[in-house]
Amino acid sequence: MIKARGLARRFATKTGPVDAVRGVDIDVAEGELVGFLGPNGAGKSTTLRMLTTLLAPTAGEALVAGHDLLTDPAGVRRNIGYVGQKTGASLDQRVADELEFQARFHGLGKHDARRRVAGLLDRFELRGMEKRTVATLSGGQQRRLDIAMGLLHEPRLLFLDEPSTALDPQSRRNLWEHVRQLGDDGVTVFLTTHYLDEADFLSDRLLVIDNGTIVGEGSPDELKNRVNGDLVVLGTPQAALVATRFADAAVDGEKVSFRIPNGDRALPGLLRDLGDIGVELHSVQVHRPTLDDVFLTMTGRSLREEANVA
Amino acid sequence: MLRDTWLVFCRVMLPVLRNPVVVVFGLAQPLLYLGLFGPLLGAGGWQWFVPGLLAQMALFGTAYAGFSLLPEVRTGVMERLRVTPVSRVALLLGRVGKDVVLLVVQSLLIVLAATLFGFRASVGEVLLGLGLVALLGVAIGALSYAVALKVKLEYVFASVLSATIVPVMLLSGVLLPMSNGPQWLYWLSRVNPLAHVVDAERSLFNTGPVLFGLLSVALLVLAGVFYGVRTFHRESS
């Protein structure tokens, strides 16, 4: 569905050229839900804008939905859906009008357009809002309208740029269910996000981008397994003693933390051994690695602070 | 491309049709000129003043058109449309079409209002006059959208407009005959294509030479649409 080689974009700025994307290779198979994860400014949106014909690459090439990005952008546009970061419906337009015009811009006749609009109104829970202007919709409703507009021509490939930004938790969850449903229907979805939970929930496979380069790739579980085991935190007055028994253990007052593979299964035996040498324990915690740990091991920086702020 | 232009035209026209009050508000300024400035020119002034007023409406009515594009650029509307196969030329011309239709309707209403003050014209003259106004609207509208797309920020666009429209209007002779002034001012007005269009508009209603005006408006349409189309292609390749 997507095959990009050496895709790069350099922007000229007053302080000199900036390489927003430094040559990325991307392969997405039909039917995959692929998440593009990275902090703000990593090059996610720039890459997405190149893949959707909005921005010309300064180097590289790509085949998107069977059409060459550079020589046949119109062919790409006919076969992809795109839902941008910001809302794509005019505030002064009515919901049904925006949908119908969007369908007709994709070449559908009036009759077909109306039929598709009706189907998507039901599917995205926008029934009854046809005649309301976009300005009167809630954030979650506007987002669902955006996605519906991206689907009117029934594309096999849908791009979503930060789909749940600025949504309340309930609307996010609802949006995620809709996106998963698309995946179940066989639509290939390529989405950018800087939310770990979103990437974790929505993606079959993740591409991690940092500073314009892809630094990691794999399913959320594969990536988590690359972090060296689960984090175990023991509360004990003999923290220093326990620390000597594990590589890279960190002591913080009466807490000692270290990583072991398959922590949930290794823990009972480990606790028995510690008991045998007379270690007294107050508390035990096991943390599965999060995508934040993944990002931290890959880039040396944490995603979490940004995700929490946003 | 024609189908796309028609679709873009319908899309931007719908909110106006649903809320036609906007058209009436657009009439406020020319009505004020008609009521508060026109009488200063004396009883015979109407035949001279009203055609110029129509050209002025074309200038003011469509030069600000670019403002309607900026919110759509800032939100994701333009972006969403650009990822459809819709023709880039249609994205421009459909919008210009809306502005020109509104301009023609408003001009017609002003002509009707002017007859109450004593302005007289035949149906043919009115049709030709409105045609010229529409062409001028196409040129300035296309230019306005292109400049708006280039500068992107409302406050920059507003200062670009005020810095260009006022001198262009003053040097077009819509308010007073340029020949009343000193030679240098008259020659300065001859460099202004709008002055020739204003002259042609007056000639259409009062018989006189229209050649220079028609050439000017043709050049303006070519330049405006060429620049507009080029900008829409570049900024949304």
Automatic annotation (TrEMBL), chain A:
Write one Gene Ontology MF term.
ATP hydrolysis activity
Q: Name one GO cellular component term.
A: plasma membrane
The entry's keywords: Antibiotic resistance, ATP-binding, Nucleotide-binding, Transport
Query: Do you know which PROSITE patterns this protein is assigned to?
Result: ABC_TRANSPORTER_1 (PS00211), ABC_TRANSPORTER_2 (PS50893)
Query: Principal place where this protein is found?
Result: membrane
- Subcellular compartments: Cell membrane
Membrane topology note: Peripheral membrane protein
What's a BP term from Gene Ontology annotated to this protein?
Answer: response to antibiotic
Q: Where is the ABC transporter domain?
A: 2-236
Pfam families named among the record's database cross-references: ABC_tran (PF00005), DrrA1-3_C (PF13732)
PANTHER family the UniProt entry points to:
ABC TRANSPORTER ATP-BINDING PROTEIN (PTHR42711), DOXORUBICIN RESISTANCE ATP-BINDING PROTEIN DRRA (PTHR42711:SF19)
Q: Please report the name of this protein according to its UniProt entry.
A: ABC-2 type transport system ATP-binding protein
From TrEMBL, chain B:
Q: Which UniProt keywords apply?
A: Antibiotic resistance, Cell membrane, Membrane, Transmembrane, Transmembrane helix, Transport
Q: Which PROSITE patterns match?
A: ABC_TM2 (PS51012)
The subcellular localization recorded is: Cell membrane; Membrane
What cellular-component terms does GO give this entry?
Answer: ATP-binding cassette (ABC) transporter complex
Q: Which domain of life is it from?
A: Bacteria
Q: How does it sit in the membrane?
A: Multi-pass membrane protein
Which regions span the lipid bilayer? 21-42, 48-70, 100-120, 126-148, 155-178, 210-229
Under the heading InterPro entries, the entry gives: ABC2_TM (IPR013525), ABC2_TM_bact-type (IPR047817), ABC_2_transport (IPR000412), Nod_factor_ABC_transporter (IPR051784)
Q: What is its main location?
A: membrane
Q: What GO biological process terms does the UniProt entry carry, in alphabetical order?
A: response to antibiotic
Outline the extent of the ABC transmembrane type-2 domain: 11-235
Among the Pfam families in the record, one is: ABC2_membrane
- Give a GO molecular function annotation for the protein: ABC-type transporter activity
Q: Which family does it belong to?
A: Belongs to the ABC-2 integral membrane protein family.
Protein's recorded name: Transport permease protein
